[in-house]
Fold these 3 entries.
Entry 1:
Amino acid sequence: MRGVRPDDFCYVTPQSKRLPNTSMKTTPTPLTAAAVLATLLFATQAFAQAVPATETADQQEKEDEVVRLQDFTVTTGYRSPKAVDQIPGAIKLISSEEVTHTLLLTEDATAVLARTVPGYAPATQALNNTGETLRGRVALRLFDGISQTTPLREGSRNGTFTDMDIVSRIEVINGPSASEGIGAAGGIINYISKSPTKEGSEATLRTKFSDQGYGDSSVYRVGLNYTHKAGNNDLIFGSAFTRRGMAYDAHGRRMGMSQSGSSNDSKSHNLFIKAGHNFGENGAQRVAITLSQFRLEGLGHYVQDLGDRALGLTDSAKRGVPFGAKTEFNDFSQYAIAYTNSALLGGSLNVQGYKASQAMRFVAELGGADKQDPLIAPLGTLTDQSEIASEKRGIRSSWSRQGLFGIDGAEVNVGFDYLDETAQQLLALTGRVWVPPMNYTSKAPFVQASYTRGPVTVSGGVRHENGELQVDDYTTTYFRNRVFVSGGSLTYQATLPNAGVIVRLPQNWSVFASYSKGFTLPNVGIPLRNVNTTGQSVDGILDLQAVIVDNKEGGVSWQGKRASLSASYYRSYSELGSSLSVDPITRDFILQRRPVELKGLEFTGEFKINKEWKLNAVYSHIKGLTRTSETGPLDREMGMGNVSPDKLNLSVTWKFLGKGSLTIDREQLFKRDINVGRSGEEHTTGLTLYNLTASYPTSKWGTFSIGLENLTDKYYILPWAQIDQFQNYFAGRGRVYSVSHTITF
């Protein structure tokens, strides 16, 4: 409900858990698409209601029914289990089956979000996730509740931090959350790891091979997950290794090596261990220890082979040793210990302590203007590459209780979070500081309450963010005039309220309305490294002020036995927003602090024709506005760096021979022309891609699967690459063939 399809929850049982295509084809407008989709969904409702109840046996009818939302709970954004049908907001739960389905097609970690979440932007098909926003804002990415995002110096590389096979589900909360702090202004994406669910030991081995028919295009993956559960003790161990070759477009040309990092020509390995022990009366208490280590590193066999945008020749790659002989990497690790007590003062206590480190090295660059220094080498001859490093440690705690003060339907959740994070960016080959060490500490109490009476649930809460940013004295690089900047500290105080109501109407309809505020910091490292005038101090830089977001949303949903639909509309506004634009000289992103208004409309729908056939639809329309200058009206539309064009994703699934499954996906991105004839003019072409996956389980030999990404072998320019930035003119992948095998023993 409320922007959610019932199919989003089917993975849980109640007990467990060349050039752009210029052919003269008529492209539907976003409003037309929305109208068509709405018509189809309402027709689906009528058809589903018209199906005679006596046409099938009771068991088959039960299998055909859409799963009830009230059977499922989420924790993300609420910090305690919360029934989905009592949450006034748009939520998307991505099942392990949906994650596995996407991995049959591609190793891209964020592709599953682009396919299934209405407001999520198209995947970049690279290691960087620049422009992969959620409803036009950078989302807070969590892994088991621990932040993988580095807002102090957002390098757009935090979408790839673990092997996706260890992920049980993904909970996506659209819009700000009162129960999460820095970075949660645009929404939350929480990747939740798997846990043992049945007694005994079990091992699952997954292997995959992908290829495009070229000598260096192969991808190999092997992963093993082992689980053990014996009484009060449980353990899960996961390890995976992947080796990726080069990707080719539909014209047989190698994809370029993104300046921000490429997953092509790379290897990755992942180690995940989680051990838990239940104790106390009735096993009410539990302690769990988690270790996660992930590293993706370039192999260094290729270098950039730049194309020519004016001639329509895309960037490519050729054999060679990268400048500086150091390859790019993503290195993420975290350690956590969690304690829960479900019988403390009549409620449930959750405490988690953690330490996490994140490091990202970018591609070495020869002659880059912003990395030159005549004291080291003649201008234009210096090679350097940057690295971002972040260290986090903190505590997350909450206590919740139902039936507070003896009032049926009342629930309260109180908590306190502490965070200490240090981040910096270095020019690694020459040992220079590009962004000085930045230390941010936060102490944030919060309280959330809800009350359900009959068909109505009202909720509200508040979080108080109390943070401090500390930066020492530093000197900028030669490119920024070697300016001395006085260090200092900035204090951030913000009170973030939220309120919502959901009304469950007759005939399985429901409506909701909500209001919430969110808090985050801008990409602090960019304004710090860009200081180029004397007399500056950290506490006097306007661009370091916090981003406070007001989010208002309303929606409606309907759920039948075989079909469902939902729609939501939202408005998100920040007086001192944070948006990206492209510097016309350096072709790199620059940070702009101006008001930002985002408005969007989302549809989702599902239709289970019978137990063999199922249809799904996802539609999203977003429009972002900001100012052209420091003053003036909100009249400049925001482009691909922040807001993606409208999209319509459709899929049909066929269950065959009782066990097999075949799915065809259709992903459509609409063309867009904004700011025509004025500053910020931008044109992106439409795009339609098809994918196919099929799986068949056997009783003895495991499950065999195939995947065909870009089924029709369509040539296209990646959406984010259609905007001229720095060395980013890339075509998308052509057809990719994949074969996978899974066996459990």
Entry 2:
Amino acid sequence: MNSSVKEQEHEEVFDPLDMQNYRIEKLPKRSKGKFEKWLAIAGVPLAIVSFILLAFVFRIPFLSDIDPERLISSAAKKAYEALGAEGFMRTNIMMLAIFVAALILWITEAIPNYLTSLIIIISLILTKVVPEKEALAQLGHPVMWLNIMSFVLASMLVATGVAKRFALWFIIKFGKNASSIFISFILINLVLSAFISATTAKAAILLPIFMVIASIYGAHSGTRNNFGRSIVLQNLLNINIGAGAFMTGSGANLLAAALIGGAIGGKVFFGDWMMAMFPIMVGLMFIGYLVAMKIYFPLSPEERLPQIEGGMERLREELKKLGKVDVSEVKAIILFILILGFWATDRLHGISATSVAFVGAVIALLPGIGIVKWNDVDIPWHLMLFSAGAYTLGSGFDYTDLPSIAVNAIFDRMGIGQGTPFWLLYILLTGVMVFSALLFQSKTMRAMIFVPIAIGVANRFGFSVISLALPVAFMIEHVYVLPFNSKPAALLYETDQYSISDAFKFGITMMIIAWLLIIIAGETWFRFLGITPNGVFGLF
């Protein structure tokens, strides 16, 4: 009885317009379905058995005779020289066993993802796959600091009321119907993607805004509806693929561009990347909108209207209550605009996105003249540890060159050799890149692994590096299917607005469509731009 009364009281005091209700630690605890519970029970035993079988029982054919001449990673070449053929083979076997076990734990969520990452780090150290200093240093990766500082800045917008003011203005201005809200978020994501080179930062900034809007439309306090599913999953999609429209959209894009530039002895320019991918990514965003609204999460007539008591008039009253923009809001807006400006003009001043965010966060936290207090800052440290494990896994791949060894084995097995048509390599490499997102958490790790493979394949078969490596790099941002595929996916999964099956069916559909579009673009748009040679279907 007491429990029931308390639950009723909680429901009565819950204010869907209060941004503090969407702090990460206040997001509702997820209740798992029957299938998810079964996976969680089976996860740990499956991971242990898989590790033992791969590490000590099974003989892995493609790892028994590694050709050092075909290694791509310089770290792997040094490891081969230091360990010898036998030692290098054992290191690769341990890397494969750890990776598969970690993948099982991530998919089944048998234990928290951050704990899986901690296990990965210590396992790679104890098995001597990665040097201890290198493994532990991943917590200090520049992208980690960029994310931490971006969460400080996002908290500043919430604490000062800027985010709430914007959300209310937004819904009053564009909330006459649900469709205009979704389309408006497409435009917001595109604008932010041009300025912010961290998808987690965009997710942190947008999350309280679209969660308030979801609550207004009836999705709050653990109550799911198709509006909530659609607005969160569409934003997850757009946060990621919006970054793919710009070379500066993420650190992984910049890394891929640097790798390709080094291979061709030149540069991949911002304008070239945007010209190639901006129309494709905008098209994908609108396709995602149609797939969500027409196929998977169609809105009922009730879900198309605000569900909040008092409707739109209540929202106008809430906006009026905020009064005029105060000094703290003005400071927050000015600081945020300055940061966006410095992020967008990094070519002119040469200051990294991480350093810009660092300076902004320091100013925001300064006593007296600052804008936000440390206790008001909302940083998901469990996601930071989760990321550190993924980056350490990436270091393990760099030290072992396991992905390129596996790709060479697959090529040999399939009989892919000289004379192979360009279109087959193009389809294979872009497909491997896009669907690898189902297995990997870190985009940086995928860029480090698969872009060099594409460069190596291009050189091996005598094709232009740009023709294969750049389309592969264009597929980096498709990380929205499963919760462990990216930090934004892990963060938005915590909102409890959708299930894994919701995310999977929507995400895998968009991933397949994205792959088909990149294949079509290879024959048409990329051919026109001179990226692919005379088309990708053997027409040259």
Entry 3:
Amino acid sequence: MRVAVRNNGNVSNVEELEREVVKLREENALLRVQRDDFERLWKALRDRIYGKKTERFANQPFLPGFGPDEHDDVGSLETPPYVDEAPDDESDEVPEPKKSKRKPRKAMKIGSGVPRVEEVVEVTDDERACPCCGEAREIIGYEDTEKLEFRPASYFVRVLRRPKLACKKHEEAGVFTPDLPPQVIDKGIAGASLLAQVITAKYRDHLPLYRQARIALRHGVELPESTLGDWIRHSAWLVQAIVVAMHQRILRGSYIATDDTSITMLGAGGKKQSKRAFLWAYLGEPGDVVFDFTTGRSRDGPKRMLDGFQGYLQADAYGGYDQLYLSGKILEVGCMAHARRRFFDALETDRTRSEMVLAAVHELYVIEREGRDLSNEERHALRQARAAPIFDDLLKLIRAMGDRVLPKSPIGKAVAYFMKNHVALRRYLDDPTLRIDNNRTERVMRQIAVGRKNWLFAGSEAGGHRAATHYTLTVSCWELGIDPFVYLTDVLERLATTPSAEIESLTPRNWAAALPK
């Protein structure tokens, strides 16, 4: 039945008014959701820039039957590391201000390879005289006091003097001069150690070339930035064979971890035509880290780099890898740190559910820590006995959450990610050589993250490929704990005389293995 009312002389339909009210309420609810989404996005961006890079949280609940033992030091376990993505806030409650405990000062360590320069403190005649009899006192020993000093790095010119030989009786024989030993750059002034220093300074110490040129000028050597760039380009061409050998060795293995990060590449028109490009890392055994550069993030890059590989591929859930798994020759291994991070991001909006998941994942990491030094057989038994039941219960818990959360909410997205990738996330339990997460790759990518804050961009596509080449060697040295300057100096000198069949002996891993123990 229609009911009409008179309002200031205007007749309005009550049903139409009710529909308008319902419509306005729906629009208002939608605006609230959008507002909440924008607030979460703003907070995430704020925390990414200014927040602490940690994902710890206190008072963790545990799944029934899988809580910590009373002797477990749960708070001492570090959470999975991540590069520049972890939010700041860990609790909705504002903690009371606490006096920060001063961390104990670490003892300074000076390596045995640092040279010692002895200086004897002179004793005056008055100090030498005995206060009792006046006779000169004899030296019975020394008391040493060490002071750490610094001598600035210095350039020097190595002069190769080649004798010119001639026979006085036979001028027609001419003058003989022995050939130069193999040079890194023919007719170039740069020696192997200088090239190694320029590469190490840029790709390990993150010093752009213009800063290196400024430092050299303080030492009385004028090195134009364009010249340094030429040396970087020539060195990349020289060591390319080593990078190829490392890539082939990774493909022969049974496990590869990969990740990517974006960098800026300048176009032909300079900064106005800059675009996003990408550096990809492919990791095999420790010390085998190969970088690749692409101008886009399509699947073509991973497809080209992983052509011929058969085994496990550990990566995030980026869709560009999906085609690689279709043949069955490559098995996907998920990253628990990525799955965990999504539930950590949902703490603010759904704390109870998020904490239950985070606590279970925490237990999985506790088990991984305990099995770190075990043999493969012992680690596999440990995972099957303790980690597998926790993972299966966690999967049931998250599956039950699926019908109770909003799909577009933070907790809904976290649940969807876990359910979509749960087979890949569980795969590490079946092979003791696999890792629970891809954090080793993310630690490697930190080198790029720090570097791009200094050199800012790649000048061209060719420059991006050169960066990938040099990062391959310097980051591999970093993983092995060897000095890239020492490695590059030796390798650049030996490249000219090393047969192509023996190039693999110059890779960082083989070079380090050949060092005297």
